[in-house]
Amino acid sequence: MTTVLVTGAAGFIGFHLTRKLLAAGKRVVGLDNLNPYYDPKLKEARLALLQAEPNFTFVRADLEDRAAISALFDAHRFDAVVNLAAQAGVRYSLENPHSYVDSNIVGFLNILEGCRHHKVGHLVYASSSSVYGGNTTLPFSVHDSVDHPLSLYAATKKANELMAHTYSSLYGLPTTGLRFFTVYGPWGRPDMMLFLFTKAILEGRPIDVFNHGQMQRDFTYVDDIVESVSRLVDHVPPGDPAWSSAHPDPSRSRAPYRVYNIGNHSPVPLLEMIAVIERALGRTAEKRMLPMQLGDVPATFADVQDLVDDIGFKPSTSVETGVGRFVEWYREFYGV
C-alpha cells in the first residue's frame, strides 16, 4: 500500500486531499500543529473525521521543529510527500512576517531534507498564485518569470520553488510545485473572503470590499484542487532534456522539477461573486467600499494548459455551484 505524508492535514485543502487519498486506497500520515491562526475547533472537527479512517495516522508537530520532522521520516517510509502546511495569508504577512520565515522557509527545508535522506519518490508542495505579484500579463503562465512578489507570503512561496529546484538538481529529488488560485468550498478557512462575507451577511454586518470592488479572482473549487493534486502525486516529473539554459523555462528543468497552475481559468469580478453569495443566502449585503490593501493584486487568472496536457484534467466547477455547496455546509456546521 502506498504511504503518503500530507502536512497541514487538518487544514482546508489538506483535509479534503487526505480524504481523497484514503478513498483511493492509500495510507496517509497527516501532520499538523493545529495552530490558532484561525479557530482550532474547525481544524479539530476536520481531524476527527480523518481519525475515524483506519488507514490514517495523525502526528502533531511544527514543520520548523527539525528533530520532530526528522523523527517523523525515521518512523515511516513515505512513497510521496504532499507539503500543504504553511503560514497562510497575504495580509497577515504584513503583521507577523517572522512566522512566514519559520514555517514556509525553515519548515520547508526540513521537509526537503527528510525527502532527500529517505529517498522519497516524489515531493508535491503548495506554492501560490501570489508569486505572480507585479505581473500584469493575463492569464498568468508558469512559463513567465515571477521575480516581483508583492508580499512576504508570496516571496516565501517563490523561495519554496527555488529551494525545490535546488534539491531536484543536486539530489535528483522529483518535485512538483502547485500554484493554487483562490481556493474555496466546504470546510474553508475563516480568514478567506467567502467565509468572511457569508458570516457577516448572515449576522447583518457590513462587508469590506477592497479596491471598491474593482478586482477579479480565479476562484477554484476545492474538489477541483484535490482532483488535480491527487493525480499529480502519481505523476512524477522527469527531467526535460530539451530544456535550454540559454532560454530557460521557469516551469521545468533538466532536473525532475515541474510547476503547475491550478485554477478555474475563469476570473470572476468581485462584485459578481458577492451577488452569487447574496443569492445563495437569500440576503443582500451591506458593502463598505475601501481602497486596495497592501500586497493585493487587481486580478488573477490561471493558464492551466500544462495541467490539462499532463494529467488530462481541467478545473471547471462554477462559482454558482461551489458557493451553493459552501453555504449549505456553513448553515449545517454552524446551525444557522
Protein model, in words:
- By secondary structure, the protein is α/β, with parallel strands linked by helices.
- The chain is built from eleven helices and 13 strands.
- The strands form four sheets. A seven-stranded parallel sheet has the order 3-2-1-4-5-6-11, sandwiched between helices. A two-stranded parallel sheet has the order 7-10.
- It is globular and about 55 Å long.
- The model has no long low-confidence stretch (mean pLDDT 95).
Strand pairing plus helix content: what structural class? alpha/beta
> Roughly what is the average pLDDT, rounded to an integer?
95
* Strand adjacency order, main sheet: 3-2-1-4-5-6-11
Cα end-to-end separation = 41 Å
Provide the low-confidence segments as ranges: none
Radius of gyration: 19 Å
Helix content: 40-55%
Main beta sheet: 7 strands, parallel
Number of helices: 11
Work out the strand percent.
Answer: 5-15%
Overall, the morphology is globular
* Total strands: 13
H/E topology pattern: EHEHEHEHHEHEEHEEEHEEHEHH
Give structural attributes.
13 strands; 11 helices; two-stranded parallel sheet; seven-stranded parallel beta sheet; alpha/beta; 336 residues; globular
